Structures are given as structure tokens and as C-alpha cells.
Amino acid sequence: MKIVKLSLVVFAALVIAFGLSGVANAFHAGGVAECMGCHNIHDAKSSSSLLAGTDVSSTCINCHGKTGAFSYHILTPDADMPAGIPPGNRTPGGDFGWLKKTYTYSPRTGTTITEAGDTHGHNIVAIDFGYIADGTNLTAPGGTFDATQLSCNSCHDNHGKLRRLSDGTFAITGAPIIASGSYNNSVTPAAGQAVGAYRLLRGNVAQGAGQGGQTFSVVFNAVVPSTYNRTEAVTPTRVAYGAGISDWCATCHPDMHSGSSSKMTHPVNETLGSSEAGNYNAYVGSGNMSGTSATSFDSIVPFQTANSTDYAALKLLAVNDGSNKNGPASSDRVMCLSCHRAHASGWKHMTRWNNEAELIAVEGLWPGTDSANAEAAKAKWNLGRTTAETTKAYNDTTMHYASYQRSLCNKCHAKD
Predict the structure, then answer these.
(1) What is the DSSP letter of 207?
(2) Are strands 170-171 and 177-179 parallel, antiparallel or unpaired?
(3) CA distances (Å), origin 40, targets 12, 32, 43
(4) What angle do CA 121, 342, 131 make, to 5 degrees?
(5) Strand 103-108 relative to strand 111-115: parallel, antiparallel, unpaired?
(6) Distance from C-alpha of 181 to C-alpha of 165, rounded to nearest angstrom
(7) 282-291 contacts, C-beta under 8 A, 24 or more apart
(8) Residue 255 or 403, more confident
(9) DSSP letters of 141-179?
(10) How, if at all, do strands 222-223 and 177-179 pair?
(11) Most exposed: 85, 195, 327, 337, by fewest CB within 10 Å?
(12) How far is it, in rounded angstroms, from Cα 315 to Cα 239?
């Protein structure tokens, strides 16, 4: 008993010494979380790291995969999404639950297509929850990363040492992390203080990578509204993406980026220029170019704000109340996340919209197998999804484009 009491005293002293008591009100709070939230020192499932789950991702999902669309939930439990019912989370990065959604449909007579769930996103390995490695891609598309090793901490630093200091630079030491740096209401660190890197994402400091993850060449600069797992039926959730987004993704997908010697690819991390920016701002829907830059922002087709590392400016853009719908300037950039969601989406190749059908909306409706509208109920438009699944894939966004809407590639290219 004396040993147990002494251990608790030592542990409490360490908590105080490392500044983890009373500063922030969230589990991670921008940095390393409560040790015992992820580790079990006497009854662990993983012997190598004394994890509470069989593997890293299973340990993460213990908290991030709960029932209900709430804040940090990024994976809907299987029991909550039977056939025809979509994953419930509407975070900007998407819901990993889409990986469990396989669709079989007949777009035309005599043709049957099966769209495997693992085509919908990053196939994290989480044995406790039935998530396994990608069944098609043995390595990351356009790269060499082993698909069997993909876990939450491939991209996120579970110990969260990367921090933004008061002078705007990033480091893994130098000042204590006092709060998360991810939100539009995050504090601005004063001298001698720091805030955590966006979403605990790994960065350009080798020692900050932690065990089991990638070492990235850049920092992912972004800010999100403090409420972000929410319906976008009325107003969009606008993430302010700053510098480094596409180069960050290129760590695992180098050949998917423009300039690759082995692939012809869509340009990324390049300025939109006056033509594409003009199209984006004018585009309302297929055949309608009457829009203005003041109201043109579309969360389904986001863009990177120039090459910005100005967090004060990014915070002003990161809103969810519709108060800032400004579209891009010519100096703003196309990025990987302009077309893809980071975790998973309701569409093949984790795209933000349906790129497998000619029309994404028909007769003013999102398509669905159960639609009362005969045209919207056709498989060639809904690809086997129910109306609820199609709607949720767009984060509940009201169909506000053209009555017969084609691909949202046209938001920048206006070929329809």
C-alpha cells in the first residue's frame, strides 16, 4: 500500500512539473494527453506500448469512435450505420465509417458494379473495430508507404510535442503548450508560451514525429471553427487552410503531385490565377455564372489561402455562421483537400463529391435509391446510395446548384 501511495504522489508531481494540471479543459488540449487515457500499466492489450487497444488506431477509436456526431468523433460505430444509413459525423475530414460502406448497383442494363468500402478513404488498421489494410493498394497511391502500417499516428502525433511558439515558429521544446492551436478561438501564445500544432498533425521537426509515424517536411497550417462536427444544411463549415497542405500530403503521395516524372497529375500547391479564381467566384451551378466573389465560397470545394502562415488572418476566415463567404483571389491555391477529404468520404477515392456519374444532382434533388422522384432514384445517378447517404456525404448541404448539376470540377473549370 505504501508503494501504491508513493507512486501516486510521484505521478501527481510529474503532472504538475510538466504543466498538465488546470491549464486546458480538453483531453489532448493541444499536446500530450492523460497518460492513462491511452495506456494501461497493468492490464494493457498491447504489450509493446501498454496500449488500451490492440493497436494504435484501436486505442484512438476507443474515444474518437463513439456513438453520436460530437466534436472529436471521426468514426461512426458499425451498429449505428446499418444498410442504407450513413455514417453520422460531418467533420471537414469526413467519417472513417464510409470505409465500411460497400455499394453494388446497376447503372445500365446488363452491368453490375461493386464499389468496395475501402475505396472511400484512408484505410487505417484498427483490429479491435474491424478496420483492415487497403485491399487494393499495397502502398500509398503514388508512394511507397506500406498500407499495412497505416494508423492514426501515421499522420497525427499521439504525444503532440509539435508546438507553435509566440513568434510563429514551430518547435518541439522551448515553451509549454497551454492550449490547442487548432481553433478560431484558440489563444494567441504570449512570450514563454506555445499552442499545439493543428490537430496534433506531424510536422517538419524530425524529433517531433514520435514513434511509428511519418516525418513531414512541412507544417500543416490551418484553423477550424471551434464547432465543426455539424450539419451544413444552413451555413458551411469553413476551414481556413494555409501554407503547406499539399506538400504535407506529398510525404506519402509524392507521385500524385504535379512535376512528377512518372505521372501526369492535376496541379496542386499552385496559384489559381485570374481565370480559375474568376470561374470559382462566378460559378453558381451548371449553366449559371452569375455569382460574385463575396458569396462564392463552397465548403465542398475549399481552397488554400495563398501561402499563409498568418494565424490571425486565418482565424477570421474559419467560421461556421456564414459571415465570411468570400471566394478566392488569384493568389490563392488549389490543394489536395480541394477535391479530397482527409479521412474518408461517401465517394470513391475519398473525393468530396460524386465523380463517378455525369450528374451529381437531378431535377433539383440529391439522388437516392429511395427517392420518390423517378429520375433521382435511378442507379446511374445515385450509385446505390440512399437519399440519406447522398445527403450526408455532402455534410447535409442543401442542394443549391443547378437542377441538373454536373461535377464540381466545374467550380474552377466551368466546362458545363
Answers:
(1) G
(2) unpaired
(3) 17, 16, 6
(4) 40
(5) antiparallel
(6) 10
(7) 282/414, 283/410, 283/411, 283/412, 283/414, 284/401, 284/402, 285/400, 285/401, 285/402, 285/405, 286/401, 286/402, 286/404, 286/405, 286/406, 286/410, 286/416, 287/402, 287/416, 288/402, 289/414
(8) 403
(9) TTS--BGGG--HHHHB-TT---EEETTS-EESSSS-EEE
(10) unpaired
(11) 85
(12) 9
| DSSP class of 187 | P
Count of positions (residues) in the chain: 416
CA angle 268/381/411 to nearest 5° reads 30
Assess contact for 347 and 408: CB atoms under 8 A: no
C-alpha grid cell for residue 286?
Answer: 451548371
Cell digits of residue 175 = 515553451
Residue 9 exposure: Cα atoms within 13 Å on the Cβ side: 6
For 288, residues 6+ apart whose C-beta sits below 8 A from its C-beta are 402
The three three-digit cell numbers of residue 274, written as one number: 485570374
Q: pLDDT tens digits for 8-57?
A: 333 333 333 333 333 334 688 899 888 989 999 888 887 678 999 999 99
Amino acid at 17: A
What distance in Å separates the CA atoms of residue 280 and residue 271, rounded to the nearest whole number? 13
